[in-house]
Amino acid sequence: MTSSISLEHLADIAGGRVIGDASVTVDSCGLNSATLAPGGLFAALPGTRVHGARYAADTPAAAILTDEDGQALLLEVGESRPILVVEDIRAILGLVAAEIYGHPTEKLTVLGVTGTSGKTTTSYLLEAGLLHAGYSVGLIGTTGTRINREPVPTSLTTPEAPTLQELFARMLSEGVTHVVMEVSSHALELGRVRGTRFDVGGFSNLSQDHLDFHPTMEDYFEAKAALFDGPQAAERAVICVDDDWGKRMAKRAAALPLTRVATQGEADITARQLSTEATGAQQVEMTIAASGTTYDFRLPMPGEFNIANAALATGMAAAIGLDPQTFLDGVEKVAVPGRMERIDRGQDFVAVVDYAHKPAAIAAVLDTLRGQLEGTPGRIGIVVGAGGDRDSSKRPLMGAAAAKRADLTVVTDDNPRTEDPATIRAAVIKGAREANPDGDIREADSRAAAIDEVVAWARPGDAVIVVGKGHEVGQLIGKTMHHFDDREELSRALDEVLRHSANQDLAGYRDSDDDSQSKEDA
What we know:
Elements lengths: L4 E2 H8 L2 E3 L5 E2 L2 E2 L10 E3 L19 E4 L1 H9 L6 E3 L3 H12 L8 E6 L4 H14 L4 E5 L2 E4 L2 E3 L8 H13 L4 E5 L2 H5 L10 E4 L13 H9 L10 E5 L3 H9 L5 E5 L6 E8 L7 E7 L2 E7 L4 H16 L4 H8 L9 E2 L7 E5 L4 H15 L6 E5 L10 H11 L2 E4 L9 H15 L4 E4 L3 H11 L5 E5 L6 E4 L2 E4 L2 H36 L1
Parallel strand pairs: 4-5, 5-6, 6-7, 8-12, 8-13, 9-12, 13-14, 14-15, 15-16, 20-24, 21-22, 21-24, 22-23
Antiparallel strand pairs: 1-3, 2-7, 9-10, 10-11, 16-17, 17-18, 19-20, 25-26
Protein backbone atom coordinates (compact mmCIF):
# COMPACT_ATOMS: atom_id res chain seq x y z
CA MET A 1 0.00 0.00 0.00
CA THR A 2 1.12 3.57 -0.61
CA SER A 3 1.87 6.12 2.06
CA SER A 4 2.04 9.90 2.09
CA ILE A 5 5.74 10.58 2.45
CA SER A 6 7.28 13.98 2.97
CA LEU A 7 9.99 15.30 0.66
CA GLU A 8 12.17 15.83 3.69
CA HIS A 9 12.04 12.11 4.46
CA LEU A 10 12.69 11.17 0.84
CA ALA A 11 15.64 13.56 0.71
CA ASP A 12 17.19 11.72 3.64
CA ILE A 13 16.81 8.41 1.78
CA ALA A 14 18.06 9.78 -1.51
CA GLY A 15 20.88 11.90 -0.14
CA GLY A 16 19.43 14.94 -1.89
CA ARG A 17 18.25 18.45 -1.05
CA VAL A 18 14.83 20.07 -1.29
CA ILE A 19 14.20 23.40 -2.95
CA GLY A 20 10.92 24.74 -1.61
CA ASP A 21 8.58 23.32 1.00
CA ALA A 22 10.13 20.06 2.29
CA SER A 23 6.99 19.21 4.27
CA VAL A 24 4.97 18.57 1.10
CA THR A 25 3.94 14.91 0.87
CA VAL A 26 3.57 12.58 -2.11
CA ASP A 27 1.71 9.28 -2.35
CA SER A 28 2.84 7.94 -5.75
CA CYS A 29 5.74 8.22 -8.14
CA GLY A 30 6.24 8.01 -11.90
CA LEU A 31 8.28 8.89 -14.98
CA ASN A 32 5.43 9.32 -17.45
CA SER A 33 4.07 12.86 -17.48
CA ALA A 34 0.89 11.65 -19.23
CA THR A 35 -0.10 9.10 -16.59
CA LEU A 36 1.18 10.55 -13.32
CA ALA A 37 -1.58 10.80 -10.71
CA PRO A 38 -2.32 14.08 -8.90
CA GLY A 39 -0.30 14.36 -5.72
CA GLY A 40 2.50 12.19 -7.06
CA LEU A 41 6.26 12.71 -7.38
CA PHE A 42 7.34 13.27 -10.99
CA ALA A 43 10.78 11.80 -11.69
CA ALA A 44 12.29 14.04 -14.38
CA LEU A 45 15.21 12.06 -15.82
CA PRO A 46 17.74 13.19 -18.41
CA GLY A 47 16.97 11.67 -21.82
CA THR A 48 19.11 11.09 -24.89
CA ARG A 49 17.53 14.08 -26.63
CA VAL A 50 15.33 15.93 -24.13
CA HIS A 51 15.47 16.25 -20.36
CA GLY A 52 12.32 15.06 -18.61
CA ALA A 53 12.18 18.30 -16.63
CA ARG A 54 10.75 19.96 -19.74
CA TYR A 55 7.57 17.92 -19.27
CA ALA A 56 7.09 18.71 -15.58
CA ALA A 57 4.76 21.64 -16.23
CA ASP A 58 2.27 19.24 -17.87
CA THR A 59 1.96 17.02 -14.81
CA PRO A 60 -0.31 17.26 -11.76
CA ALA A 61 2.68 16.35 -9.58
CA ALA A 62 2.89 17.66 -6.03
CA ALA A 63 6.69 17.71 -6.31
CA ILE A 64 9.48 16.95 -8.76
CA LEU A 65 12.52 14.71 -8.42
CA THR A 66 15.38 15.63 -10.72
CA ASP A 67 19.11 16.30 -11.06
CA GLU A 68 21.08 19.55 -11.22
CA ASP A 69 20.43 20.02 -14.95
CA GLY A 70 16.74 19.38 -14.44
CA GLN A 71 16.64 21.85 -11.57
CA ALA A 72 18.16 24.55 -13.77
CA LEU A 73 15.52 23.96 -16.47
CA LEU A 74 12.70 24.07 -13.92
CA LEU A 75 13.91 27.31 -12.36
CA GLU A 76 14.23 28.87 -15.81
CA VAL A 77 10.49 28.46 -16.37
CA GLY A 78 9.57 29.60 -12.87
CA GLU A 79 8.57 26.23 -11.40
CA SER A 80 7.00 26.89 -7.98
CA ARG A 81 6.46 23.34 -6.73
CA PRO A 82 9.05 21.75 -4.42
CA ILE A 83 12.00 20.10 -6.15
CA LEU A 84 14.01 17.22 -4.73
CA VAL A 85 17.47 17.46 -6.31
CA VAL A 86 19.83 14.46 -6.40
CA GLU A 87 23.08 13.69 -8.17
CA ASP A 88 21.94 10.53 -10.00
CA ILE A 89 18.19 9.98 -10.25
CA ARG A 90 18.32 6.37 -11.43
CA ALA A 91 20.66 5.38 -8.62
CA ILE A 92 18.07 6.30 -5.98
CA LEU A 93 14.73 6.11 -7.82
CA GLY A 94 14.07 2.50 -6.86
CA LEU A 95 14.75 3.23 -3.19
CA VAL A 96 12.47 6.27 -3.27
CA ALA A 97 9.69 4.37 -5.05
CA ALA A 98 9.95 1.45 -2.63
CA GLU A 99 9.58 3.85 0.30
CA ILE A 100 6.51 5.50 -1.24
CA TYR A 101 4.83 2.16 -1.97
CA GLY A 102 5.60 0.70 1.45
CA HIS A 103 8.44 -1.70 0.54
CA PRO A 104 6.08 -4.39 -0.78
CA THR A 105 8.83 -6.91 -1.56
CA GLU A 106 9.59 -7.16 2.16
CA LYS A 107 6.25 -8.98 2.39
CA LEU A 108 6.57 -11.02 -0.83
CA THR A 109 8.76 -13.95 -1.84
CA VAL A 110 10.53 -12.68 -4.97
CA LEU A 111 12.45 -14.92 -7.37
CA GLY A 112 14.50 -13.09 -10.00
CA VAL A 113 15.87 -14.80 -13.11
CA THR A 114 18.70 -13.26 -15.14
CA GLY A 115 20.88 -14.45 -18.03
CA THR A 116 20.88 -14.08 -21.81
CA SER A 117 18.56 -16.92 -22.79
CA GLY A 118 16.03 -18.90 -20.82
CA LYS A 119 14.67 -16.19 -18.54
CA THR A 120 11.12 -16.40 -19.85
CA THR A 121 10.95 -20.19 -19.94
CA THR A 122 12.45 -20.50 -16.45
CA SER A 123 9.94 -17.93 -15.19
CA TYR A 124 7.01 -19.84 -16.67
CA LEU A 125 8.27 -23.08 -15.16
CA LEU A 126 8.51 -21.38 -11.77
CA GLU A 127 5.05 -19.88 -12.13
CA ALA A 128 3.52 -23.27 -13.01
CA GLY A 129 5.24 -25.11 -10.17
CA LEU A 130 4.41 -22.47 -7.57
CA LEU A 131 0.76 -22.30 -8.62
CA HIS A 132 0.52 -26.08 -8.42
CA ALA A 133 1.94 -25.91 -4.91
CA GLY A 134 -0.95 -23.64 -3.93
CA TYR A 135 0.71 -20.23 -3.89
CA SER A 136 -0.73 -17.04 -5.36
CA VAL A 137 1.78 -16.00 -8.04
CA GLY A 138 2.69 -12.84 -9.91
CA LEU A 139 4.80 -13.04 -13.08
CA ILE A 140 6.76 -10.13 -14.60
CA GLY A 141 8.71 -10.56 -17.81
CA THR A 142 9.15 -10.38 -21.56
CA THR A 143 5.69 -11.72 -22.37
CA GLY A 144 4.04 -9.28 -19.96
CA THR A 145 2.78 -9.32 -16.40
CA ARG A 146 0.29 -11.78 -14.92
CA ILE A 147 -1.39 -12.30 -11.57
CA ASN A 148 -2.40 -15.93 -11.22
CA ARG A 149 -2.18 -16.19 -15.02
CA GLU A 150 -4.47 -13.17 -15.61
CA PRO A 151 -2.73 -10.52 -17.79
CA VAL A 152 -1.86 -7.10 -16.37
CA PRO A 153 -0.89 -4.38 -18.90
CA THR A 154 2.79 -3.34 -18.60
CA SER A 155 5.78 -2.68 -20.86
CA LEU A 156 9.49 -3.60 -20.71
CA THR A 157 10.88 -6.93 -19.52
CA THR A 158 11.57 -5.31 -16.16
CA PRO A 159 9.42 -2.17 -15.69
CA GLU A 160 10.91 1.13 -14.54
CA ALA A 161 11.40 1.39 -10.79
CA PRO A 162 8.21 3.35 -9.89
CA THR A 163 6.01 1.09 -12.05
CA LEU A 164 7.69 -1.98 -10.63
CA GLN A 165 7.17 -0.97 -7.00
CA GLU A 166 3.57 0.05 -7.70
CA LEU A 167 3.05 -3.34 -9.37
CA PHE A 168 4.47 -5.16 -6.36
CA ALA A 169 2.12 -3.18 -4.10
CA ARG A 170 -0.85 -4.10 -6.31
CA MET A 171 0.12 -7.77 -6.28
CA LEU A 172 0.41 -7.70 -2.51
CA SER A 173 -3.02 -6.08 -2.17
CA GLU A 174 -4.51 -8.81 -4.40
CA GLY A 175 -3.16 -11.60 -2.22
CA VAL A 176 -0.05 -12.56 -4.19
CA THR A 177 2.50 -14.40 -2.06
CA HIS A 178 5.24 -15.17 -4.62
CA VAL A 179 6.55 -13.09 -7.52
CA VAL A 180 8.62 -14.51 -10.36
CA MET A 181 10.34 -11.95 -12.52
CA GLU A 182 12.84 -11.69 -15.32
CA VAL A 183 15.65 -9.33 -14.40
CA SER A 184 17.28 -7.85 -17.49
CA SER A 185 20.78 -6.43 -17.62
CA HIS A 186 19.24 -3.07 -18.49
CA ALA A 187 17.17 -3.22 -15.29
CA LEU A 188 20.25 -3.95 -13.19
CA GLU A 189 22.41 -1.35 -14.91
CA LEU A 190 19.73 1.36 -14.82
CA GLY A 191 18.71 0.75 -11.22
CA ARG A 192 15.16 -0.39 -11.97
CA VAL A 193 15.33 -3.10 -9.31
CA ARG A 194 16.91 -0.98 -6.58
CA GLY A 195 14.62 -1.19 -3.57
CA THR A 196 13.52 -4.71 -4.53
CA ARG A 197 14.37 -7.52 -2.13
CA PHE A 198 15.06 -10.78 -3.94
CA ASP A 199 14.75 -13.98 -1.96
CA VAL A 200 16.45 -15.91 -4.76
CA GLY A 201 18.42 -14.87 -7.81
CA GLY A 202 18.84 -17.34 -10.68
CA PHE A 203 21.38 -17.22 -13.52
CA SER A 204 20.85 -19.20 -16.74
CA ASN A 205 23.73 -18.44 -19.14
CA LEU A 206 25.51 -15.65 -21.00
CA SER A 207 26.07 -15.20 -24.73
CA GLN A 208 26.40 -12.24 -27.07
CA ASP A 209 23.48 -9.83 -26.88
CA HIS A 210 22.81 -6.19 -26.03
CA LEU A 211 26.31 -5.03 -27.01
CA ASP A 212 24.66 -1.87 -28.30
CA PHE A 213 24.02 -1.07 -24.61
CA HIS A 214 26.93 -2.79 -22.87
CA PRO A 215 30.31 -1.88 -24.41
CA THR A 216 31.79 -5.37 -23.98
CA MET A 217 30.86 -8.86 -22.84
CA GLU A 218 32.69 -8.12 -19.59
CA ASP A 219 30.42 -5.13 -19.01
CA TYR A 220 27.42 -7.30 -19.83
CA PHE A 221 28.60 -9.91 -17.32
CA GLU A 222 29.16 -7.27 -14.64
CA ALA A 223 25.62 -5.97 -15.11
CA LYS A 224 24.22 -9.48 -14.54
CA ALA A 225 26.55 -10.02 -11.59
CA ALA A 226 24.83 -7.20 -9.70
CA LEU A 227 22.07 -9.67 -8.81
CA PHE A 228 24.60 -11.79 -6.92
CA ASP A 229 27.21 -9.39 -5.60
CA GLY A 230 26.67 -5.89 -4.18
CA PRO A 231 23.77 -3.77 -2.91
CA GLN A 232 21.22 -5.31 -5.33
CA ALA A 233 22.22 -8.91 -4.56
CA ALA A 234 19.61 -11.55 -3.81
CA GLU A 235 19.60 -13.36 -0.48
CA ARG A 236 20.27 -16.73 -2.13
CA ALA A 237 21.71 -17.71 -5.51
CA VAL A 238 21.01 -20.55 -7.94
CA ILE A 239 23.40 -20.62 -10.88
CA CYS A 240 23.67 -22.86 -13.93
CA VAL A 241 27.34 -23.74 -14.32
CA ASP A 242 27.16 -25.41 -17.73
CA ASP A 243 29.32 -22.68 -19.29
CA ASP A 244 32.36 -20.66 -18.22
CA TRP A 245 30.26 -17.57 -17.55
CA GLY A 246 28.16 -19.58 -15.10
CA LYS A 247 31.24 -20.87 -13.33
CA ARG A 248 32.50 -17.28 -13.02
CA MET A 249 29.11 -16.13 -11.75
CA ALA A 250 29.14 -18.85 -9.09
CA LYS A 251 32.43 -17.44 -7.82
CA ARG A 252 30.91 -13.96 -7.69
CA ALA A 253 28.01 -15.34 -5.64
CA ALA A 254 30.27 -17.20 -3.21
CA ALA A 255 29.22 -14.97 -0.29
CA LEU A 256 25.58 -16.08 -0.69
CA PRO A 257 23.95 -19.42 0.08
CA LEU A 258 24.59 -20.95 -3.35
CA THR A 259 23.11 -23.82 -5.36
CA ARG A 260 24.89 -24.88 -8.55
CA VAL A 261 22.82 -26.61 -11.25
CA ALA A 262 24.06 -28.34 -14.40
CA THR A 263 23.10 -30.63 -17.26
CA GLN A 264 26.66 -31.90 -17.55
CA GLY A 265 29.33 -32.55 -14.94
CA GLU A 266 28.78 -32.42 -11.21
CA ALA A 267 26.65 -29.87 -9.35
CA ASP A 268 24.28 -29.58 -6.41
CA ILE A 269 21.37 -30.26 -8.75
CA THR A 270 21.86 -32.14 -12.01
CA ALA A 271 19.44 -32.71 -14.87
CA ARG A 272 19.69 -35.30 -17.62
CA GLN A 273 17.55 -36.30 -20.58
CA LEU A 274 16.37 -39.91 -20.46
CA SER A 275 14.63 -40.16 -23.83
CA THR A 276 12.62 -38.15 -26.34
CA GLU A 277 8.99 -38.90 -27.07
CA ALA A 278 8.44 -40.34 -30.50
CA THR A 279 5.43 -38.10 -31.16
CA GLY A 280 7.20 -35.09 -32.63
CA ALA A 281 9.64 -34.79 -29.72
CA GLN A 282 7.48 -32.20 -28.03
CA GLN A 283 8.11 -33.66 -24.59
CA VAL A 284 11.33 -34.81 -23.03
CA GLU A 285 11.62 -37.50 -20.42
CA MET A 286 14.24 -36.30 -17.97
CA THR A 287 15.58 -36.81 -14.50
CA ILE A 288 16.67 -34.31 -11.87
CA ALA A 289 18.90 -35.30 -8.98
CA ALA A 290 18.77 -33.08 -5.89
CA SER A 291 19.84 -33.72 -2.29
CA GLY A 292 20.33 -37.41 -2.90
CA THR A 293 16.90 -37.95 -4.47
CA THR A 294 16.16 -38.55 -8.14
CA TYR A 295 12.98 -37.22 -9.74
CA ASP A 296 11.76 -38.44 -13.14
CA PHE A 297 9.27 -36.32 -15.04
CA ARG A 298 8.21 -35.13 -18.49
CA LEU A 299 9.21 -31.67 -19.62
CA PRO A 300 6.65 -30.47 -22.21
CA MET A 301 9.22 -28.76 -24.44
CA PRO A 302 12.26 -30.04 -26.31
CA GLY A 303 15.89 -28.97 -26.20
CA GLU A 304 18.97 -29.35 -24.04
CA PHE A 305 18.63 -25.67 -23.15
CA ASN A 306 15.16 -26.31 -21.73
CA ILE A 307 16.53 -29.13 -19.60
CA ALA A 308 18.92 -26.54 -18.15
CA ASN A 309 16.02 -24.15 -17.63
CA ALA A 310 14.10 -26.86 -15.77
CA ALA A 311 17.10 -27.54 -13.54
CA LEU A 312 17.45 -23.83 -12.77
CA ALA A 313 13.75 -23.48 -11.96
CA THR A 314 13.82 -26.56 -9.73
CA GLY A 315 16.86 -25.22 -7.89
CA MET A 316 15.19 -21.85 -7.34
CA ALA A 317 12.01 -23.50 -6.05
CA ALA A 318 14.04 -25.71 -3.71
CA ALA A 319 15.90 -22.62 -2.45
CA ILE A 320 12.64 -21.28 -0.99
CA GLY A 321 11.83 -24.65 0.56
CA LEU A 322 9.46 -26.10 -2.04
CA ASP A 323 9.51 -29.88 -2.38
CA PRO A 324 10.96 -30.75 -5.85
CA GLN A 325 8.37 -33.45 -6.55
CA THR A 326 5.47 -31.07 -5.84
CA PHE A 327 7.12 -28.43 -8.00
CA LEU A 328 7.83 -30.78 -10.92
CA ASP A 329 4.28 -32.14 -10.87
CA GLY A 330 3.14 -28.63 -11.74
CA VAL A 331 5.73 -28.15 -14.48
CA GLU A 332 4.57 -31.06 -16.63
CA LYS A 333 1.78 -29.09 -18.33
CA VAL A 334 3.46 -25.71 -18.74
CA ALA A 335 3.26 -23.87 -22.07
CA VAL A 336 5.50 -20.91 -22.89
CA PRO A 337 4.25 -18.64 -25.70
CA GLY A 338 6.62 -18.34 -28.64
CA ARG A 339 9.24 -20.69 -27.22
CA MET A 340 9.64 -23.75 -29.48
CA GLU A 341 5.91 -23.38 -30.05
CA ARG A 342 4.60 -26.00 -32.45
CA ILE A 343 2.16 -24.85 -35.13
CA ASP A 344 0.13 -27.81 -36.34
CA ARG A 345 -2.46 -27.35 -39.07
CA GLY A 346 -2.42 -30.95 -40.24
CA GLN A 347 0.75 -30.64 -42.35
CA ASP A 348 3.16 -33.56 -42.72
CA PHE A 349 6.23 -31.67 -41.47
CA VAL A 350 7.18 -29.92 -38.25
CA ALA A 351 6.57 -26.15 -38.03
CA VAL A 352 7.84 -24.15 -35.05
CA VAL A 353 8.02 -20.53 -33.86
CA ASP A 354 10.72 -19.45 -31.42
CA TYR A 355 11.95 -16.21 -29.86
CA ALA A 356 15.64 -16.96 -30.61
CA HIS A 357 17.23 -13.68 -31.68
CA LYS A 358 20.89 -14.12 -30.77
CA PRO A 359 23.52 -16.43 -32.29
CA ALA A 360 23.73 -18.97 -29.45
CA ALA A 361 19.95 -19.24 -29.18
CA ILE A 362 19.56 -19.81 -32.93
CA ALA A 363 22.22 -22.52 -32.79
CA ALA A 364 20.45 -24.16 -29.84
CA VAL A 365 16.99 -24.31 -31.41
CA LEU A 366 18.38 -25.65 -34.70
CA ASP A 367 20.40 -28.29 -32.88
CA THR A 368 17.20 -29.28 -31.09
CA LEU A 369 15.31 -29.63 -34.37
CA ARG A 370 18.17 -31.59 -35.91
CA GLY A 371 18.05 -33.94 -32.96
CA GLN A 372 14.35 -34.51 -33.55
CA LEU A 373 15.02 -35.45 -37.18
CA GLU A 374 17.97 -37.71 -36.36
CA GLY A 375 17.79 -40.98 -38.26
CA THR A 376 15.43 -39.54 -40.89
CA PRO A 377 16.12 -37.82 -44.23
CA GLY A 378 14.26 -34.72 -43.01
CA ARG A 379 15.67 -31.28 -43.79
CA ILE A 380 15.49 -28.02 -41.82
CA GLY A 381 14.47 -24.61 -43.11
CA ILE A 382 14.72 -21.40 -41.09
CA VAL A 383 13.42 -17.86 -41.41
CA VAL A 384 15.75 -15.43 -39.64
CA GLY A 385 16.24 -11.68 -39.38
CA ALA A 386 17.99 -9.20 -37.11
CA GLY A 387 16.64 -6.11 -35.38
CA GLY A 388 17.57 -2.57 -36.32
CA ASP A 389 19.07 0.05 -33.98
CA ARG A 390 20.58 -2.76 -31.90
CA ASP A 391 23.88 -4.62 -31.61
CA SER A 392 24.98 -4.85 -35.25
CA SER A 393 27.97 -7.11 -34.53
CA LYS A 394 25.73 -10.12 -33.88
CA ARG A 395 24.02 -9.96 -37.30
CA PRO A 396 26.61 -11.96 -39.30
CA LEU A 397 26.92 -14.35 -36.34
CA MET A 398 23.17 -14.98 -36.47
CA GLY A 399 23.40 -15.71 -40.19
CA ALA A 400 26.34 -18.04 -39.63
CA ALA A 401 24.56 -19.92 -36.83
CA ALA A 402 21.57 -20.47 -39.12
CA ALA A 403 23.40 -21.41 -42.32
CA LYS A 404 25.74 -23.88 -40.58
CA ARG A 405 22.79 -25.93 -39.37
CA ALA A 406 19.87 -25.40 -41.74
CA ASP A 407 19.37 -26.77 -45.24
CA LEU A 408 17.54 -23.59 -46.22
CA THR A 409 18.09 -20.15 -44.70
CA VAL A 410 15.65 -17.39 -45.64
CA VAL A 411 16.91 -14.02 -44.42
CA THR A 412 14.23 -11.39 -43.88
CA ASP A 413 13.33 -8.47 -41.63
CA ASP A 414 12.71 -8.63 -37.90
CA ASN A 415 12.09 -5.17 -36.41
CA PRO A 416 14.15 -2.89 -38.67
CA ARG A 417 13.15 0.17 -36.65
CA THR A 418 14.83 3.24 -38.18
CA GLU A 419 17.58 1.38 -40.05
CA ASP A 420 17.55 0.44 -43.73
CA PRO A 421 16.18 -3.14 -43.74
CA ALA A 422 18.28 -4.12 -46.77
CA THR A 423 21.47 -3.17 -44.92
CA ILE A 424 20.51 -5.34 -41.96
CA ARG A 425 19.67 -8.29 -44.22
CA ALA A 426 22.96 -7.89 -46.07
CA ALA A 427 24.93 -8.28 -42.82
CA VAL A 428 23.02 -11.45 -41.88
CA ILE A 429 23.45 -12.88 -45.41
CA LYS A 430 27.18 -12.10 -45.38
CA GLY A 431 27.66 -14.16 -42.23
CA ALA A 432 25.50 -16.97 -43.62
CA ARG A 433 27.41 -17.20 -46.91
CA GLU A 434 30.79 -17.06 -45.24
CA ALA A 435 29.76 -19.90 -42.94
CA ASN A 436 28.22 -22.01 -45.72
CA PRO A 437 29.29 -20.86 -49.21
CA ASP A 438 27.36 -23.63 -50.95
CA GLY A 439 24.26 -23.39 -48.78
CA ASP A 440 20.75 -22.52 -49.94
CA ILE A 441 20.54 -18.96 -48.65
CA ARG A 442 17.74 -16.72 -49.85
CA GLU A 443 16.50 -13.20 -49.14
CA ALA A 444 12.93 -11.95 -48.72
CA ASP A 445 12.11 -8.31 -48.03
CA SER A 446 8.74 -9.31 -46.58
CA ARG A 447 8.58 -11.44 -43.45
CA ALA A 448 5.26 -12.92 -44.57
CA ALA A 449 6.79 -13.84 -47.95
CA ALA A 450 9.77 -15.43 -46.18
CA ILE A 451 7.40 -17.63 -44.18
CA ASP A 452 5.53 -18.54 -47.36
CA GLU A 453 8.81 -19.51 -48.99
CA VAL A 454 10.04 -21.82 -46.26
CA VAL A 455 6.62 -23.51 -46.00
CA ALA A 456 6.44 -24.02 -49.79
CA TRP A 457 9.95 -25.55 -49.67
CA ALA A 458 9.13 -28.11 -46.97
CA ARG A 459 8.54 -31.76 -47.85
CA PRO A 460 7.04 -34.51 -45.70
CA GLY A 461 9.31 -35.25 -42.75
CA ASP A 462 11.08 -31.86 -42.82
CA ALA A 463 11.08 -29.19 -40.13
CA VAL A 464 10.76 -25.42 -40.51
CA ILE A 465 11.28 -22.78 -37.85
CA VAL A 466 10.63 -19.05 -37.76
CA VAL A 467 12.87 -17.33 -35.23
CA GLY A 468 13.25 -13.89 -33.75
CA LYS A 469 9.84 -12.69 -32.63
CA GLY A 470 8.25 -15.60 -30.80
CA HIS A 471 5.33 -14.27 -28.76
CA GLU A 472 5.54 -10.73 -30.19
CA VAL A 473 2.56 -9.47 -32.17
CA GLY A 474 4.07 -6.40 -33.81
CA GLN A 475 6.77 -5.46 -36.30
CA LEU A 476 8.42 -2.07 -35.83
CA ILE A 477 9.22 -0.47 -39.18
CA GLY A 478 10.52 3.06 -38.90
CA LYS A 479 8.66 4.37 -35.88
CA THR A 480 5.38 2.62 -36.72
CA MET A 481 4.32 -0.64 -35.12
CA HIS A 482 2.47 -2.94 -37.52
CA HIS A 483 0.53 -5.98 -36.38
CA PHE A 484 2.54 -9.09 -37.17
CA ASP A 485 2.44 -12.43 -35.39
CA ASP A 486 4.75 -15.20 -36.63
CA ARG A 487 2.32 -17.79 -35.28
CA GLU A 488 -0.58 -16.31 -37.24
CA GLU A 489 1.49 -15.97 -40.40
CA LEU A 490 2.89 -19.49 -40.18
CA SER A 491 -0.63 -20.85 -39.62
CA ARG A 492 -1.88 -18.89 -42.64
CA ALA A 493 0.95 -20.15 -44.85
CA LEU A 494 0.35 -23.74 -43.77
CA ASP A 495 -3.38 -23.43 -44.41
CA GLU A 496 -2.74 -22.05 -47.91
CA VAL A 497 -0.37 -24.89 -48.79
CA LEU A 498 -2.79 -27.49 -47.47
CA ARG A 499 -5.68 -25.86 -49.31
CA HIS A 500 -3.66 -25.79 -52.54
CA SER A 501 -2.69 -29.43 -52.07
CA ALA A 502 -6.32 -30.38 -51.44
CA ASN A 503 -7.42 -28.53 -54.59
CA GLN A 504 -4.77 -30.33 -56.60
CA ASP A 505 -5.92 -33.68 -55.23
CA LEU A 506 -9.51 -32.81 -56.05
CA ALA A 507 -8.56 -31.75 -59.58
CA GLY A 508 -6.65 -34.98 -60.04
CA TYR A 509 -9.62 -36.97 -58.81
CA ARG A 510 -11.92 -35.18 -61.26
CA ASP A 511 -9.53 -35.74 -64.15
CA SER A 512 -9.31 -39.41 -63.25
CA ASP A 513 -13.09 -39.62 -63.00
CA ASP A 514 -13.46 -37.95 -66.42
CA ASP A 515 -11.00 -40.40 -67.93
CA SER A 516 -12.82 -43.42 -66.53
CA GLN A 517 -16.17 -42.04 -67.68
CA SER A 518 -14.90 -41.50 -71.22
CA LYS A 519 -13.55 -45.05 -71.31
CA GLU A 520 -16.93 -46.39 -70.26
CA ASP A 521 -18.62 -44.28 -72.94
CA ALA A 522 -16.23 -45.64 -75.53
